[in-house]
Amino acid sequence: MRFTNHILTLSILALSACGYHLAGTVSSLPPDVKKIAIPQFSNKTLRPDIENQFTNSLLDEFAKGKKVEVVGERDADAVVKGVITSFENTPISYKGGDVIQEYRVTVRLEVSLIKKADESVIWKDKNISYFSEYKNDPDVAIAEANRDAAIRKIAVDVSRQLYSNILEGF
What we know:
This protein has about 170 residues and is an alpha/beta fold. It is built from 3 helices and 6 strands. It has helices at about 1-15, 50-65, 140-170; strands at about 35, 40-45, 70, 80-95, 100-115, 120-135. Mean pLDDT is about 85; it is low at about 1-25.
């Protein structure tokens, strides 16, 4: 029994020494950052409206999380700046030789969190890349709906990861 207690104690000490923590319990935000703004992302691609999907998805994620207040830029302590740098829609499988069966949508972004008081960078990632695959369809409306669903999935996945990276330090 005594041996088991020593192992348990050593395990706890080892985990705490290496910086282990439970998700959702640590914030990488400076203590003076209580309010953030999430203005419209910039879009450097030819894909219309994609910036709205990513901005709205990130706003939704922060609203669900309730760890920091989201406000307008004027009232914010820090601002999330996002740029969609690339949108690719690439065929990945074919049927019957030359009929595209499936596509992969890939979106690349640069996102940073800037402290307003001194314009310092709190967090930054210039190489965010996510993809999702979707089925093509002879009906153009269905194919476009499938592509749009893939883009929405990417926006949600990116937003969850950004929320975690910005607030939880992962």
